[in-house]
From TrEMBL:
It comes from Mollisia scopiformis (Conifer needle endophyte fungus). Residues 14-26, 36-55 have a biased composition (Low complexity). This is Uncharacterized protein. Residues 67-80 have a biased composition (Basic and acidic residues). Residues 1-113 are annotated as: Disordered. It comes from the Eukaryota.
Length: 113
């Protein structure tokens, strides 16, 4: 809430003047009309340029799968955290189960044909 009398007390008691924007005439846009001028030829269609040969897109990295051993270790960590009441160990166990703990797991190997 504003206190009364503060502007006059601080010496900023000049009247507040807000600049006004001068009003000018509005101009109307010219409307588009039907083409009654010179006749035009038939439209030409453009074709896409062929892609250069030898350029290929990068393929996505193979998906990482969490091994059964890592999942078992994660469950053990999670239970250990629950028993001791340590939320950090529980979170570490969950990450281990999901495979997002940063440890290197084997990626699925795809053979090239």
């Amino acid at each position: 809430m504003a206190r009364e009398g503060t502007r006059s007390a601080t010496g900023n008691s000049r009247p507040r003047v807000f600049p006004t924007v001068p009003v000018t005439e509005t101009t109307t846009k010219k409307r588009a009309t039907a083409n009654t001028g010179a006749k035009r030829g038939p439209k030409t269609t453009t074709t896409k340029a062929a892609k250069p040969t030898g350029v290929t897109k990068k393929k996505a990295a193979p998906a990482k799968k969490t091994s059964v051993a890592d999942k078992a270790k994660g469950v053990v960590k999670k239970v250990e955290g629950t028993v001791t009441g340590n939320p950090e160990k529980k979170a570490a166990g969950t990450k281990k189960i999901k495979g997002t703990d940063g440890s290197k797991t084997k990626a699925t190997v795809t053979k090239k044909k």
